[in-house]
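Notes on consecutive records. When two proteins share a document, each keeps its own sequence and its own token line. Never mix them. Below: protein one.
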Amino acid sequence: MAHENYLQERVFRRTPANGLPGHIDDQDDYVCPETFRGLDPNALFVAADLGLPLLRIEELESMETVAGAARGELKPMVEAYLSSGGRSGEPELRDFFTRWSRRAQIRPSFAAFHADLEDLFETGQGWEDRLRDALGLIHFDPGQRGNAIDVLVFCYDVREVPRLRRLEVNQRPLAVPTVLDSRFSVAFCPSPRDTAYGHVVDLSGNVSEPRREVVHPTMPLRPGNLWRMGSIRKTVDGGLLPVARQLHLMALRSLSGRDDYAMTTDTKE
């Protein structure tokens, strides 16, 4: 309960009436999550290449709920837009994203690096399940929901991330994720202090080097950011999680040169 209170009081911020902002005053507690108010302007990815592509996954049904849309409204718009290569349904989709933007919270949004995930899409069918596992999204579990989970994948350049007014024009607030930036997840492991970015736990346990992740303020979306739509169908194998976490922590120790990092994190009494 204390963690949830912290999120509501200091991290999840109310969006202005005109929608998610493209510029955020980090001195304004009303609109800026605490995550970004103390951001070091010299941190590595604050000065990332503005053309660097990021990926973010959103649950389709959750986006409808936030936008106040009818259930089933978004999917046909996305299908029309993607199947036509963006030539059909653009105005309707833009209107939906505007409605979503006006109701979404300004909060830390988790994003991965497109370059780290390219291989997941090369073998075709089942990329949705592989992406879910690779990003540690254990709550996207059809086994718990009782049905497949429709998801949207957004791809956008760093330059589209909202700016903090105190940063230089070519800088963006890309921060290292911590346990304080969102609700608890049994699949989340914070990276060692002073690392340049976070690392996700691969639920499959089959990755040798953890993929990178960052958080940034919730950004306004446009149809051009929409990259893919699919359905997660594979049940999460919860029995693999302890092994996946141990392999993840071993990899972090190797990457950071800290052999003692989180040695007692997953031990059983």
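Protein two starts on the next line and is unrelated to protein one.
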Amino acid sequence: MKVEIYSDVVCPWCYIGDRRFARALAAFAGAEQVDVAYRPYQLDPDAPAEPIPVRSYLERRFGGRVDGMLGRVSETARGEGIEVDWDRALSVNTLTAHRLLRLAGREHGPAVQHALLEKLFDAHFTRGGNVADHGLLADLAASAGMDRARVREYLDSGEGLLETREELEHARRIGVRAVPTFVFDDQYVVEGAQPASVFLRVLEEVASRAAGSDAEGGGGAAACDDGACAV
């Protein structure tokens, strides 16, 4: 089974959803047959190249609703073992971080890509890191198992930029409009940071349908329960 997860490293619901999906995958009997890849999406392609405080950035976009929004997110995140420090968090453009995640996936595989993503989430939401800074990105990549010199050379060049932009355009072209979005076997879509129980049910349903198709030599796609999936 193939699972592609569209997310952005400054999206709190992507962080929460990733934790929930990981819990579901750990409980899924066929986990060893699941290939997970992270695909880029930018919530704000026009976010500043130089970091500014997240609170200031959000207040410009959403006005007085910000405190209530952030409070609800923090409470939900805490339930997944995530501590968010909104007073330290910085808003910045995530294109470079997505370039790095692409490199991790291509040259090191899904385990390293996921480890890097977790470190990017932690750097942004908990440690107040600038996830566009090449030095910080190289440090995070090295701690995830990548070669620091290769990463620094890659980031300081234009390598992977065109391909990352093409992947971002592909996400828009196939209809991704919010993140996280989980695409199973190119057919079934789950949007949002669903409970782990929903992700587990979808994994089981997709595996069952694939097994049925193999047995019958065909088969069609259908939506999953509770409106969580769409074809």
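For the record: Residues 196-216 form the longest helix (21 residues).
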